[in-house]
Amino acid sequence: MISQEEIPIRHACSSLNISKSAYYAGLNRPAINLSDKPIKNTIYDISLEYPKYGYRRITAELHRRGQPTNHKKVLRIMREENLLCMPKKKFRITTTDSNHNYPVYPNLAKEIALTGINQFWVADITYVHLQSECVYLAIIIEVYSRKCIGWEMSRRIDAVLVLNALNMAVDARLHLGIDGLIHHSGQGVQYACNDYVNRLNELGIKISMSRKGNPYDNAFAESFMKTLKAEEVYLKEYKTFDEAYSNIKQFIEVVYNNKRLHSSIGYLPPVEFEAKALNISLS
Question: Which contacts qualify for 189-195: CB closer than 8 Å, 24 or more apart?
Fold first, then answer.
C-alpha cells in the first residue's frame, strides 16, 4: 500500500520522467553555491585565454583580477568543470650535433648567483612541425626574469639561425649593460662554431656549455620550450612557415613575456618582474 507521503513523490517522478532513486539522489545532492558563480566565470575566461594553465596559475591570476581565492577551491571547481589539462607526449627530433672539432667551453652555470638582469642568458634550439615540413626555432632566455629576449625561426638549423636570435637579444639589452654576462648553451655545432663564438668574444660575453648527457644544465631553456610547445605549438596545426612564425611571435612577445604568470618569479609576467627590478613604471 502506498503511503500518503509517497503519492506526491510518485507524481513528481512521473512528471519529470525520472526514477524514484534519481529523485532521492537529487535531494541528497549538495546545493549549488551561488557564490562560486563569479569565480567560476572568471576561471572559464582565464582557461580560454591560457588553455594550459594549471590551478595554481589560475589562482594567482584570480588574485591579480581582484578575486582572491583559495587554491583548493580553484582546484575543486576546475575538476568539476573538467578544466584540468593532461600533458601529451610528442615525438622528439634531435637538434643537437655535438660531434665536431670545435672547442668546448667549461660549464659556468653552477658558479653564478643571480642578483639582476644581464648576468646569465641561456640559448637553445627546438623544432616545430608544419603540415609538410619541419622548421627550427632558436631562443635566448634571460634567466633572472625568464624573459625570452631573442628568437629566430628558420627552415635551416645552422649558425645563421642562432646568430640572429643572439643579435636580437643583444639589440634589446645592450643599453642596460652586459659586462660580466655569461652565455650558456649546449655543445651543438651551431653554438661552438667560429662565427658564433667570435660574436660572443666580440661582445665580451663569457661562454659556458652544458656537459653531455646532463639536460639539467640548460633547464631554463628546456622549461621555456616545454611551455611553448604545450601552450602554443601543440594546440595549433600550422600549414605554412608564415603562419607558424606569426603565431609563435604572438605567443613569445605578447603572451609569454607580457601576460603569462611564472611561478619562479612570484607569479608575475617577465616584463612586469623586470620593471619592478629596474624600478620602471609600465603605465
Answer: 189/97, 189/98, 189/99, 189/100, 189/102, 190/125, 190/138, 190/157, 190/158, 190/159, 190/161, 190/162, 191/123, 191/162, 192/100, 192/102, 192/103, 192/104, 193/100, 193/102, 193/159, 194/102, 195/159, 195/163
Q: Is 200 helix (H, G, I), strand (E, B) or coil?
A: helix
182-225: pLDDT as tens digits? 999 999 999 999 999 999 999 999 999 998 766 556 789 999 99
Strands 134-142 and 120-129: antiparallel
The residue with cell 639561425 is 161
Question: What is the rounded distance in angstroms from the CA atom of residue 66 to the CA atom of residue 206?
Answer: 44
Phi, psi of 257, deg, nearest 5: -75, -35
- Backbone φ, ψ for residue 138 (5° rounding): -105, 140
Task: Give the three-class secondary structure for 262.
Answer: strand
Instruction: Provide the residue type at 221 as one letter.
Output: A
Nearest to 186 by CA among 163, 142, 218: 218
- Count of positions (residues) in the chain: 283
For residues 271 and 142, what is the distance between their CA atoms, to the nearest angstrom? 11
Q: What is the pLDDT of residues 136-155, one digit of tens each?
A: 999 999 999 999 999 999 99
Closest-CA residue to 102 (of 212, 200, 214, 195): 195
State residue 30's pLDDT score. Answer: 47
d(CA 39, CA 19): 34
The residues, ordered by sequence, that sit 6+ positions from 6 with a Cβ below 8 Å of its Cβ are none
* Cβ pair 138, 161 in contact under 8 A: yes
Classify residue 43 as exposed, middle or buried by CB count within 10 Å of its CB (0-12, 13-18, 19+): buried
